[in-house]
Amino acid sequence: MAKRHPFRRFVLVVLVFVLAAGIYNIKHILRAIYPVAYEEDIYAAAQEYAVDPYLIMGIIKAESGFDVHAVSHKDARGLMQLTDETAEWIAEKLGLLDYDVTLYADPALNIRMGCYYVRYLSDLFEYETKTVLAAYNAGPNRVKEWLADPAYSNDGETLTHIPFRETERYVNKVQNYEDVYRRLYSADAPVQ
To answer: Which of 23, 113, 183, 191 is 20 to 30 A from 39, comparing alpha carbons?
Structure first.
């Protein structure tokens, strides 16, 4: 008959508890490094325009770090860093007759406009995320030029190479953030 070792069982239970607590704490630490604000606005606008909320979180993290008052060196503004020209174009498409560029600091509106723009780019570039993100950063007309150049696209639809280092870094950064946000927050997503 095998001898029972209650101390081993105790050690095993303690070890499992410590590991579980460690994983729980790691998630809290990572959430502190990758916070998300305006979650309800993100989920609502992402659902309205059928875009991935974690992609939107990744864009916001890369663009503004969730700072609603962020202004770039190119004068892009708000959480999703929309230029005045792009924001005015989106406002016209959305029928926002009373839109004024000073409204960029309204988180819900900025997120909604950014989600609309991501959806527009997704439709334009056939839901190819890398291409959509390149267009979000470098502009859709420039990306169309890249797609027409065999040095950057083998098929005219997918970018195989991004010629701007800044845009390439941006695309990689957003995709990494998207993955992190999906892993950290997907269990908390509201049921739609």
So the answer is: 23
- Report how far apart, in Å, the C-alpha atoms of 180 and of each of 49, 55, 127, 189 are: 22, 10, 21, 14
Catalytic residue among 39, 40, 48, 63: 63
Which tokens hold the place of 141? Answer: 């007309």
Residues of the chain above pLDDT 90, percent: 71
Structural contact between residues 31 and 183, judged by C-beta atoms closer than 8 angstroms: no
Q: Is 145 a catalytic residue?
A: no
What is the predicted pLDDT for the residue at 14? 57
Which two structure tokens, joined as six digits, stand for 39? Answer: 């979650």
Fold of 37-188: Lysozyme (1.10.530)
Q: Evaluate if residue 93 carries a pLDDT over 50.
A: yes
| Reported confidence tier of residue 103, pLDDT bands at 50, 70, 90 | confident
